[in-house]
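#random but structural
TW: two for the price of one
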Amino acid sequence: MDIILQLCRHKLLPRVCATATSCRRLSSCAQPLKTSHTPAPPPTLLPRVSRLFQPSNLREGQDSGDLTCRSQRLMLQAGLLHPSNPGCFYYLPATVRSMEKLVRLIDQEMNAIGGQKLDMPALCGADLWRRSGRWELMGKEMFRLRDRHGIDYCLGPTHEEAVTELLASQANLSYRQLPLLLYQVTRKFRDEQKPKFGLLRGREFYMKDMYSFDVSEEAAHHTYQSVCHAYGRLFDRLGLRWVQVQADMGNIGGTLSHEFQLPADVGEDRLLTCGSCSFSANVELLEPGQTDCPQCQAGTLVESKGIEVGHTFYLGNKYSEVFNATFNTAQNKPTLAEMGCFGLGVTRILAAAIEVLSNDDAIRWPGLLAPYQVCVLPPKKGSKVVALTALAEELALDLGNMPGLRGEVVLDDRTQMTIGKRLKDASQLGYPYVVVVGQGVAEQQPQFEVICQQSGETLFLSRDALTDLLSRVETV
């Protein structure tokens, strides 16, 4: 009781209305009359760790013998993924939250350069691919199937044919409507012979693929650079170190291509970078064993490894000619559109970010992608400060209703476990901020212990200072 009275004096617990025990605060006893017919938003339900579908039994008994990279092992151990078929996974709720945040960031960057979002069928007719010549070219990587009528289809690994046919169906497209940048975020399918590294190389994955249509080669190159700059901004916002390298066109084709790579020892791509100029390229583009820079002729090429997270192509009229995708010029003359295509590996970015930012024991997310920003830890059941449990819940509710943190605060209500055990779980899951409601809150000058996991700092803050710190957290 002394602790409760002390907390009330410091305004750390809500005042209880003596005349109406159903009221949680004195101010709630006299609500102002509503002057608008707009319904109030529903109250935010406080997420509780004990209720999240990320239970420990999903990580118990995991065979780690074939976990060949850090991100795969950490995501499985933390209950973020659950294996299905080879190269396929269940994405559990925390992972979906992170992926949705990444998609929102991608949407922001694509919308900023004029991108328009659509959704194309995953089931693609073989006729389109035969017309482009890629039905056979794709080889065994393509998942193929036949319907009851004997018609061949594939599960789309990419959508150049489909989007070009879509544009070709628009008979009266005007030059005034270009450039046109159409993109989607969907599941893709590739029959990898040996799936490995978890989400870094699977058979089923999420990708953002965008296709551009321009009036001229010059305009298409301008669009190409605009998308590349948007990709750079995206990776900068995520706090990831990245490099853009010249790349092979592969079976997509075209005359210009770049990869966006995150430097990492586990990466499967070999990159060559010049120390004297801006040249960088995938080793596939150069002669075997080449060490002199082909751009400046003075520098020496240094090899490193990277994880490809984005790829851009200038296609010209390779596909628009096949499908007769045209626009009408100012002279009303039908002209083939100049095309580009631009991919981002959505689930690969998630895994690659964990790979390069985390240590061997704990996940460290890019701040904007953490499933939850704040985890509040109440005292252990039966401890000397167990009376602070109500305060911890109240704190979590209040923080979760702050404008920038709505839905971003989770309460670890597993009070049968020690603070230490829950701190270990919180570290493993990578919450950027962990707030411990413990003995320090019961002192004369109440202080909350705040672990800032990305910086490694531990702070002891008053309630006001805590609120001020978390009010500056950036979310998306």
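TW: number two ↓
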Amino acid sequence: MGAIMASITSELLFFLPFILLALLTFYTTTVAKCHGSHRWRSTKKKRPNLPPGAPGWPFIGETFGYLRPHPATSIGQFMEQHVARYGKIYRSSLFGDRTVVSADAGLNRYILQNEGRLFECSYPRSIGGILGKWSMLVLVGDAHREMRAISLNFLSSVRLRAVLLPEVERHTLLVLRSWPPSSSDAAAFSAQHEAKKFTFNLMAKNIMSMDPGEEETEQLRREYITFMKGVVSAPLNFPGTAYWKALKSRAAILGVIERKMEERVQKMNKENSSVEEDDLLGWALKQSNLSKEQILDLLLSLLFAGHETSSMALALAIFFLEGCPKAVQELREEHLEIARRQRQRGASKLSWEDYKEMVFTQCVVNETLRLGNVVRFLHRKVIRDVHYNGYDIPSGWKILPILAAVHLDSSLYEDPNHFNPWRWKSNTPSSFMPYGGGTRLCAGSELAKLEMAVFLHHLVLNFRWELAEPDQAFVYPFVDFPKGLPIRVQRIAPEEEKILM
């Protein structure tokens, strides 16, 4: 009985901040909503045909059920029950807002294709408070387009080939070479932690030319861990809360970035200075008209976006592959062939042509993104009255396109809860949107896929791995492995004619 009560208490404590947030949001927005609802009724001859659904409890709506943790390879009990009862498009009340929830592939695509015309990005204010008001995640309109253009320029195909591919491979090898030697009693370690270390060091180097292993880099990484916990927490800003701690870490991180900016400006102003570092900070200072505040938020948000989602996708790939030996074997054969061609031409590093030959690897990447769903849903707001599939969706309502629900839809993907990379050998359906779509398609999506492919190349050629203890990814609502995905590895021996590092 004590264990049950402890579990209940723990769960209530988890949801308490979200209840308080919903109450505050409800209090500040109820009048505006009522006014908007009256305006709809007064300007239309008939009442809107809203999607079916229910508002749930007073004030808090259905926030409880929506946030309940569940395995990442499922849509959770809340979504399953609501889709079964109301269909793939239904209305609810979440976080104090009247909301339309979409598990429909067509509507999700319609939302993303009409960004800025019928819908606009609308993340909670707390996200802007912690990532910054100039973060690409919260910006809309021209401001978003300007920041996105800078990011796309920095992540261009030319730069991916010439700069980022060698950097991704170098940072991959730095991580893998630190793994323990083959031993039957080798200690287990966290694959999720290693993936995070890999992606963080890569981004820190290419954003601000910070080298892995240095004290300043490690200090920044430690602050970033605290920062990340606050991004996905309820925005309760009083001492001791995750959000409060994250705001302190944000200040520390911005302090590091600002110091780097000052050092770079001084260096650029010196006569006969050496060649500048080829990083985003230098590019933003020299090629853009951004203010200091804008550059700080840009670098902070790209460090966030380029690290967190990519590392979790890589950890998911390691997890799924561990349970699918057939896929590992086909991956290894593909990369052995790439390595043989490498040796024939006398090369020691991967080329862009090698990367484009990783056909089955891309199948593994796609299946990992489909089944794992690191980005599970998007926040949007309806800015003009919308009529879709017989339903009226009023302006001012929130609308959540649930990407995970589409990716796990049995009418679109056969046996959707099963890891099957071979399904991608035929085609890529239009319902597959792991990085969003439209004008807000993730600017770093190609880099993220490159990171996964290069890491898997060296992983399967040099290691076998197994779970040290059972673990699986859960949604909290962010995706995380509760135990950190503990694994044990065994280096592949030279006599097996594998290509070693």
